[in-house]
Amino acid sequence: MTLEEMTEMEETLRSKYSDPDALLDATINAVMRALCVPAKLLGYRYIFLAARFIRTRPPLLRSTTKKELYPYLEQCMNTTKPMIMRTMHYAIERAWKRADPEVLYSYLGLRGRNLKDPPGNLEFVYLIAERVRLIIGDPMWEEHYRRVMAEAKQIYPWLN
Are 131 and 107 a contacting pair, CB within 8 Å? Predict the structure, then answer.
């Protein structure tokens, strides 16, 4: 998938879905498809759930660690941590071999990185979650920003 096709896909997603949950799911799927993550692999589902977990958390709790993410996936998918780590890593390696380097550079913002080595599981999930945030925005963070700015404008009226 080229960068132009990805841009068109993003515009289509924004106009097609009005439900935030459906938009989030469709966007994560589209980003993973654009990055050539094979959907037939079990790791695809784990990466999808991990990205969804990160995106649905409040902005101040976004610093997800392996200690939070893997137990959540274990509980959701009724499996073990080593199985989750292995299948996610395998899916990421397959995607890394199949994806266009131009897409990896531009779409994920991986400038100055050695693209021969795939990222770790959590890093890849964060890259997907960040791209999803750029596509659909972040309503929770925007609401928080509006509230903080309104309070700041009351204290400092010259901020208008």
Answer: yes
Q: Return the closest-CA partner of residue 46 out of 32, 56, 58, 57.
A: 32
- Mapping DSSP onto H, E and C, the string for 27-59 reads HHHHHHHHCCCCCCCHHHHHHHHHHHHHHCCCH
What Rg value do the Cα atoms of the chain yield, rounded?
17
Q: Quick check: 10 and 131 in contact, CB under 8 A?
A: no
DSSP character for 120? Answer: P
* CB contact burial 80-110 (16+ within 10 A = b; e otherwise): eeeebbebbeebbebbbeebeeebbeebbee
Give the list of residues 6+ apart from residue 52 with CB closer than 8 angstroms, or none.
24, 25, 28
List, run by run, the mean pLDDT of 10-residue segments along the chain (160 residues). 72 76 87 90 94 76 73 91 95 90 75 74 88 76 63 67
